[in-house]
Amino acid sequence: MKRPMMIRTALLTGLLLASQAIKADTAPVVRHKIPGSNFPIASAVEVPAGRTLVFLSGAVPPVVDDKAPAGSLAAYGDTKLQTQGTLAAIERTLKGLGLSMGDVIKMQVFLVGDPAKGGRMDFEGFMAAYREHFGHAAQPNLPSRSVMQVAGLVLPGWLVEIEVTAVRP
């Protein structure tokens, strides 16, 4: 009598574990809004067990004026233009991996001080381009995010570098 009971218990345990694994795979990513704010970032993002995280290396802006001196600010444009180009590159990389900007859960942004802004980062320019990709009706999923001013990036003309983490749906 004990053996059939043990087999039944083992089968039920296996089914329970399998159902939990299926539940984890289908559980949604939870994005917590900043309480009392409409600022377009998540204060936290929860990723359920069983999801695959995808870490993208830092992306930098493309050249927008090939007639400008190589590596110069004029070759890459202002912060808004550089952010637009950088986010477009991230979007292309994600698409190549079968993902989208809506799958981004974490973003780290490195901004160099803009000489036209007295050496301060152009946060408004960054945000104008960021809002084209996040926090609107067509793409409401918000990542958690950090933005920091850094002393410099590899090329003197770069004002923006962005790295993201995405989750496979």
Question: What is the fold's blueprint, element by element?
Answer:
Layout: H1 2-26, E1 30-33, E2 42-46, E3 53-55, H2 73-76, H3 79-96, E4 104-112, H4 123-130, E5 144-150, E6 160-167
Parallel strand pairs: 4-5
Antiparallel strand pairs: 1-2, 3-6, 4-6
Top keywords for this entry?
169 residues, 4 helices, elongated, 33% helix, two-stranded antiparallel ribbon, 60s Ribosomal Protein L30, Chain: A, alpha+beta
Q: Report strand %.
A: 15-25%
Net shape: elongated
| Major sheet attributes | 4 strands, mixed
Stretches where pLDDT is under 50 for at least 5 consecutive residues are: none
Secondary-structure class: alpha+beta
Return the CATH architecture.
2-Layer Sandwich
User: What distance lies between the first and last C-alpha atoms, to the nearest angstrom?
Assistant: 45 Å
The CATH superfamily name is RutC-like
**pLDDT averaged over residues:** 91
Strand order of the largest sheet: 3-6-4-5
CATH class annotation? Alpha Beta
- Looking at how many chains there are and whether they match, the oligomeric state comes to single chain
Question: What is the tally of helical segments?
Answer: 4
- Domain count: the total is 1
Helix content: 25-40%
Q: What are the secondary-structure elements, in order, as H or E?
A: HEEEHHEHEE
CATH topology: 60s Ribosomal Protein L30, Chain: A
How many β-strand stretches?
Answer: 6
**Radius of gyration from the CA trace?**
22 Å
